[in-house]
Amino acid sequence: MKQFGELYSKQEIASASDFLKTIVPLEPLRDTENSFEGTDQNYDKSFKGSLMRHGTYYRCGFANVDFEGTIGNNSIFENSIFTDCSFANANFIYSNFSNSNLTINTSSSRYDFSDFTGATISNSKIDGTSFRDCYFRNSNLEACKINQCDFSNSIFSNCSFKDIDLSITTLDFSEITDSKFHNVTLPFFGILNLVNGFEQIVEQEAVLFKPVSSDYIVKSEKYFEDIRLLKPVFYYEKSFLALANIYAYDGEIENTYYTILDGLAYACMKKDFSLIRHLCKFASVNKFFNLKQLKSFYDFLESNVNVQQLQYIEYRNYLNELSIAKSLLIDCPFNRDIIEINLKTNFDYNDADKLAETFNIINSTFEQYAPDSNNYITIRHNSPIELTIVVSDNIYTLILVFIALELFFNKSCNVIEKVQNILKNRQEIKLKKLEIEKLKAEQEMRQRSHHILLPSDFQSISYLTKTMNDLPIELRNYK
Predict the structure, then answer these.
(1) Which of 110, 46, 18 has its CA nearest to residue 73?
(2) Dihedrals φ, ψ of 367, to 5°?
(3) pLDDT, tens digit, 9 for 90 and up, residues 391-443
(4) Phi and psi at residue 63, to the nearest 5°
(5) Which residue of 212, 259, 431, 439 has the fewest CB atoms within a 10 Å radius of its CB?
(6) Please, are residues 344 and 479 in contact by the beta-carbon 8 Å criterion?
(7) pTM for this model (two decimals)
(8) How far apart are CA 90 and CA 357, in angstroms?
(9) Contact yes or no for 219/231 (Cβ under 8 A)
(10) For the chain, what percent of residues have pLDDT higher than 90?
């Protein structure tokens, strides 16, 4: 008899499994003996790496394992060690290699959208492999031979690069910040297409720059002399990010502004909408421009494309890039942390007085605790009404905003106690008893002055954070 929630009985699954073997005899059905899961285990060359699907391994060791042709997308290898393993024509997209050590030989493989936080890749040979949109934080790349690899759109933060030649790699549209380099060769032209970190890199002493197609190689001082002379070439070739990086490094912010504007105009004219997000990200994360200037970029994008002349796929791509541009330039600029607060009420959307008073409370909270934040509110017109409040600022300021709102709408100190217990001696948002009492008193005063709103008008308040800060995982969300 089938158990509650079961769609198929064990007998039906066994029968289908036998039939599966007639189609793919080398790919066994995942079961308890073939689960591709492990904790504190060691595996050698007998491990069937090529058959692995969605592996989940913690603190495991892999020695001389062959992952040829593996479709291992969404796999987890946390705190694990790879020794002399081979990855050929393998896919590990959206995988987690955090805090792992890798000594590997990988070719024609893909690790796009994967997490290498705290990972060390050393003494490895990496050829024709894609690391697009990957995340490297507190990571180490040492003594590796890297050839024809793609690191586009990836983020490198507080990383260490040592004894490595990256001149034949693609780093376009990536971010490389707060990182150290020792005996590193970078792509002469490709490094100019970074959206963040160019200035930090070129000021490092132990860095060389070399084009892909020649043996010309220079140090930082000579490199900057060269690229300044090449500005007319970059202008002619429409290399807007290269020009923007050079102008910004030289402190020519006005020229940087108009270079971004020219790039956006070119992207709209040529319908090269993918260029929009890279230019907007450069403008947003580097903090060269004020909010008014950032908004002018967005206004330009809205008004300089005739959507009636776009084919369907062009129109769809334009709308997608416009949405990303709005987030970067208006809603959440400067690479700030983000908190998304969900406030569920018990009143109908037709109750204009209560809705207006709710807005007044939210706005006054911003003014008092996060006056420099960017924020917007989305209203769901179901009954009862629900509000989503998105705020961007320093993560600890954002949590303080939520504490204030919860005190008013939920009349609860639960989140304060949770924050206190988690952060303890950390200084960022230490709320002492006196400060808590003051915060509570302020909220109680506000509650007494707002007779329209009643405790029964609000059902719940919760939040979800989006941050690259070292925020304790327990504070990522609150329900």
Answers:
(1) 110
(2) -60, -35
(3) 999 888 898 899 889 888 887 767 777 776 766 656 556 555 556 666 666 66
(4) -125, 125
(5) 212
(6) no
(7) 0.87
(8) 57
(9) no
(10) 67
